[in-house]
Amino acid sequence: MIPAIKWEGDRLVLLDQRYLPERIEFVHCRNYREISAAIKDMVVRGAPAIGIAGGYAMASSVRECGETSFEGCYRYLREAANHISAARPTAVNLMWAVDRVLRKALSVLESAERAGTREDAALKEAYAAAVEEARTIEAEDLELNKKIGEHGARLIRPGSRVLTHCNAGALATGGYGTALGVIRKAWEEKKISMVFADETRPYLQGARLTAWELSQDGIDVTVIVDSAAGYLMSKGLVDCVIVGADRIAANGDVANKIGTYTLACLAHMHNIPFYVAAPSSTFDLSIPDMSAIPVEERSPEEVTSFFGTRTVPEGVRALNPSFDLTPHGLISAIITEKGVIEPPIPENLPRIIKG
Ligand code: MRU
Residue 220: what pLDDT? Predict the structure, then answer.
């Protein structure tokens, strides 16, 4: 698989996910503002992947800092962190990774200040440490996904027909994927007979990205329009649903791509297991439940036009919430690298995530 994110010298090279599968193009980001813009414009997308890109953006800002006092450096880096974190509001992995790299850079600068090191030398040292931290976040994510795959594959019964939504795969992470990590591992173990990928309107992450990356790996995948999911379930053609997550509240409520809640309701109605796969960096224990999760609204043009062709009459408005919220009561289990959180999710979550 072509990596979605690559740090090369002082640049971040991103596989441009807006054009897949039609064209393979890369965007070279030279500074933190370009990386933030690439996150906002969905060149790179998927919660863990935007976290990794955000981490590199934060590191890049340390190199770009031209302040000549320690106080100025601290202010500059905090402003950069706010700018990067604001690129997309729902996926908490972005803020988590930016904060982790910021803290690393600040700790190096603070020690240097205490030791009487000059600002320019301290910034060089802080930049090297920040890049290293971003690289660690990326490498860790790949490892976590493999663990999620192993834990999740145990839940899949032999011969399963699995439905997934959006793209929670290698393209959306440091590699391998969360929901698609489970599918990859269960496929390898020959437990899956079919994968259905929801098209995932309006951005088509399922049709374009999930179908692309699974077929690249030789995993047989069938794309359906989002509205076909209920029909397939009613016909007994889906054995379980697996999705990723952008943010999980302390009680296990989940924010994920628009359409996830609909699938959870349908799965509940048809008595089909509904699994969420996510690393611990997706958990936001500072918020008690889904009511505090900010849901990104994207441009109505993503709905009124279909790849450049207007499909809605001129003058008609469109609404485009990019995510929705699924209450924990509709979730059969949350699969993390630390283990599987089973119901009652609010009670079991702290033990697995904190312990
Ligand atoms: O708008 P996107 O494409 O960034 O949304 C992505 C999703 O909703 C994914 O399901 C989620 O981020 C999990 S990715 C492992």
Answer: 95
